[in-house]
């Protein structure tokens, strides 16, 4: 047996085409969805992610701007800028690229963004809504993963989903979303002993470890669906995930590649959230 490859990039392209049509329709009615990204400092990885977000917005007809602030920007200055954007009716989505310099408290920043403009889905109000299964902005990587599984008709209900990684951005929320879809969910992390005891029982395995080849053929249950969230840069400059793709490909029934897997879907979900924000689905929070 060999796996079906879950082609995130192709799926993202298809979804972006559909979104372009919706954006055109909104523009005809005088509504131009607008995303503002704040980038603090000059971390090259953050710069590259922000450029990707800007490019994808443009391709879909969503207007965007990037506010670059110096690495010595104070928390107070950043919070003031966020307040301005909260009050600006022409800005629908606000994203502050993480990580932030150490002197700025990330949680203060996340909580300063209006929940109605929180296209990252990181505000505690939106996290609460997600956990309770209410309509809200879902965090982008987890909702991208869910969209991939659903688009490839991977059964979630009643299945055992194992998540490796418990970050606030990926691991924790993706487990909640799978639970909302009636999966039985197990979280593994750096302190888990005998990881293989859990991964080998997973019908759906979500891998967000941050280490190349962390998950190999022996970790996998025959016929599992494996989603690789890892983005590791090798010495030769190429990108690779956390899963030994070639070996796992032979044993799994579905596998997502890196690159062209989860990454493009994350950005696509951000665009989806920006359109949702523009349409004001949670106007009461403005
Ligand atoms: N840094 C890495 N991933 C993310 C993300 O999804 N959103 C933001 N704002 N920063 C990030």
TrEMBL record:
GO annotation, cellular component aspect: cytosol
Gene3D superfamilies in alphabetical order: Leucine Dehydrogenase, chain A, domain 1, NAD(P)-binding Rossmann-like Domain
UniProt-recorded name of the protein: Bifunctional protein FolD
The Tetrahydrofolate dehydrogenase/cyclohydrolase NAD(P)-binding domain, residue ranges: 139-279
Molecular functions per Gene Ontology: methenyltetrahydrofolate cyclohydrolase activity; methylenetetrahydrofolate dehydrogenase (NADP+) activity
Top-level taxon in the UniProt lineage: Bacteria
Protein family: Belongs to the tetrahydrofolate dehydrogenase/cyclohydrolase family.
Organism: Virgibacillus salinus
Pathway it works in: One-carbon metabolism; tetrahydrofolate interconversion
Protein's UniProt keywords contain Cytoplasm: no
Binding-site list for NADP(+): 165-167, 231
GO terms for biological process, alphabetical: L-histidine biosynthetic process; methionine biosynthetic process; purine nucleotide biosynthetic process; tetrahydrofolate interconversion
Cited SUPFAM superfamilies: Aminoacid dehydrogenase-like, N-terminal domain (SSF53223), NAD(P)-binding Rossmann-fold domains (SSF51735)
Quaternary context: Homodimer.
UniProt keyword Metal-binding, yes or no: no
Keyword annotations from UniProtKB, A to Z: Amino-acid biosynthesis, Histidine biosynthesis, Hydrolase, Methionine biosynthesis, Multifunctional enzyme, NADP, One-carbon metabolism, Oxidoreductase, Purine biosynthesis
Catalytic activity: (6R)-5,10-methylene-5,6,7,8-tetrahydrofolate + NADP(+) = (6R)-5,10-methenyltetrahydrofolate + NADPH; (6R)-5,10-methenyltetrahydrofolate + H2O = (6R)-10-formyltetrahydrofolate + H(+)
